[in-house]
Specification:
The complex is a heterodimer of chains A (313) and B (199).
Chain A (H helix, E strand, L loop, with lengths): L24 H24 L7 H6 L4 H15 L18 H27 L8 H12 L1 H24 L12 H20 L3 H30 L3 H8 L7 H24 L7 H24 L5
Helix pairs in contact in A: 1-3, 1-6, 1-7, 1-11, 3-4, 4-5, 4-6, 6-7, 7-8, 7-11, 8-10, 10-11
Chain B lengths: L37 H19 L6 H15 L1 H6 L17 H19 L15 H21 L4 H10 L3 H20 L6
Classes of the chains: A mainly alpha (313), B mainly alpha (199).
């Protein structure tokens, strides 16, 4: 009996025809990573500008939640791993070509830095806090004296972290929806916008909220421009990219994307923020929470839709 | 464009002069809130309805969104009950996706629009509007009762004031006119019976 062996790349469970490997953990992490990047960027930026006492929530309060957001995000990534006990192997190699390697090392640097940053402000925010050991008190003194020294690398690393949350997806060259370099800046801007929203929620200073509101309006405009550009790029691309764009332009993701991300998550909060700047009374929690929900849904939709798009038909 | 500014509770009680000061209202405190001229509001609503037909091919609705939300909630908690129920199974269960419905998105838009309107006309605050002669609690109980009766009636009539009366009349549906007459006719009678809750 003659037997023939066929090797086929089609019909591989969870990979072909549709990728089905990334679930809630990934968009959850991308959201928290982007949010942490946004907060850290603003905290370090206003410190470098010498405005730390005018922007208290930005520089002091909001960074307190960053270590928790990063650790929770990393825990989500850990949950996503198939072989969880091998996670340390990410730290046995440096690969410039690999976005995951970039992510692993950036997080390795930014997470402890963010903890140090928060630690340097703990006693200012919680006066009853006691470091107990002299060595910790000396370390705190050094950190307080060298905040600018921390701010510069934090600013750079936060931008890399923000971009990396998009690059993680765009490095997938087999998924047309993800395989566009605009995802990096788009996720960065979106992350900064969610970071600004958290700061607005935490700030009690009207002037600070106004500054962050202005910045946020600008970020939303840039984000909308990137989203338009994303689809323009797809529609000018090949058939598979047009199909990928059509998932959002008439396909099954159209209504949730435009309703929850574009309108309720970007345009509507921007309109509310404009009203606030014009002097109308707007409860700032409403646009801030909408931006956060919109940012989260955006990441869920991108991860979900990206796994459906493919090259082979 | 200038809007006539009325005070929240009872336009008869007070009018507001150009400086936004109370002229003849004593009991109720004027809080700076204003309303759009009702005739202009009606024209805007009609324009919205026209645009809704033009853009989405459907009229406006409100009770349908509540109905779908209820059906989706029941389906999430007791899917077996939805399958057995002749009513719920029309909207939820199986291939039906009640929350992925035009009316749900429309109502989200209504909420967003109402929020902006509240900001512009300085009415964005939590309050229960009621006659000074009754308590907030009484007002809320009556509102709940009225809502229940109205929701039940809207399902019997296959639509509420927006879905059946407004959208129906706009396309000259006879059912729309009957619904309108029934809703407002009944309202006049019941309002007279329950008038002590208001005046």
């Amino acid at each position: 009996m003659k037997e023939e062996l066929f090797a086929s790349g089609r019909n591989i469970p969870n990979i072909d025809p549709y990728l089905n490997i990334w679930h809630w953990q990934i968009p959850g992490y991308l959201f928290l990573g982007g949010l942490a990047a946004g907060i850290l960027f603003f905290a370090s930026f206003f410190t470098i500008m010498g405005k730390e006492n005018k922007m208290e929530a930005t520089v002091k309060k909001a960074p307190m939640i960053v270590p928790f957001a990063l650790v929770l995000g990393l825990f989500f990534l850990f949950l996503d791993l198939k072989h969880k006990l091998y996670f340390w192997q990410l730290y046995t190699t440096v690969r410039i070509q690999s976005p995951m390697s970039w992510g692993a090392w950036v997080l390795m640097a930014i997470t402890p830095l963010s903890i140090l940053w928060a630690a340097s402000y703990i006693r200012e925010l919680f006066p009853k806090w006691d470091w107990k050991y002299d060595i910790l008190k000396t370390a705190e003194k050094w950190l307080i004296a060298n905040r600018i020294l921390m701010a510069w690398p934090l600013a750079a690393l936060s931008i890399i972290l923000g971009i990396y949350t998009g690059i993680l997806l765009s490095a997938f060259n087999a998924r047309p929806l993800w395989n566009t370099s605009i995802l990096g800046p788009l996720f960065l801007v979106s992350g900064m916008s969610t970071g600004a929203a958290v700061i607005m929620l935490m700030s009690k200073d009207h002037k600070e909220r106004k500054i962050m509101g202005r910045i946020d309006i600008l970020l939303i405009i840039v984000e909308l421009f990137f989203i338009i550009h994303l689809f323009m790029g797809f529609l000018a691309g090949s058939e598979v990219q047009i199909n990928a764009a059509n998932l959002f332009l008439g396909g099954k993701f159209t209504a949730p994307f435009f309703a929850f991300v574009v309108i309720l998550g970007l345009i509507f909060p921007a309109v509310l923020e404009v009203f606030e700047l014009k002097g109308y009374k707007v409860p700032i929690a409403v646009p801030a929470v909408l931006i956060l929900i919109g940012g989260l849904i955006f990441r869920f939709l991108m991860v979900e839709a990206g796994q459906i798009t493919r090259y082979l038909y | 464009m200038s809007f006539k500014k009325n005070v929240t509770h009872n336009p008869k009680l007070a009018t507001v002069n150009k400086n936004d000061k109370i002229t003849n209202m004593k009991k109720s405190k004027y809080d700076g809130s204003t309303y759009l001229n009702p005739y202009l509001g009606g024209v805007i609503l009609g324009t919205v309805l026209l645009l809704s037909f033009y853009i989405s091919g459907r009229g406006v609705g409100a009770s349908g969104a509540v109905k779908n939300t209820v059906a989706a909630t029941v389906n999430a908690i007791a899917p077996q009950h939805v399958e057995k129920s002749a009513y719920y199974s029309q909207f939820a269960g199986g291939d039906n996706r009640p929350m992925n419905n035009w009316l749900i998105y429309e109502v989200l838009g209504v909420l967003a629009g109402a929020f902006i309107s509240g900001i512009v006309f300085n009415r964005l605050k939590l309050k229960v509007e009621h006659s000074p002669k009754i308590t907030s609690r009484r007002r809320l109980w009556f509102a709940l009762g009225g809502g229940l009766v109205f929701g039940f009636g809207a399902q019997l009539a296959r639509g509420c004031t927006s879905g059946a009366a407004l959208s129906g009349m706009a396309v000259l549906s006879f059912g729309g006119y009957i619904t309108m007459v029934a809703i407002f006719g009944t309202a006049f009678v019941v309002a007279w019976i329950l008038r002590k809750n208001w005046i």
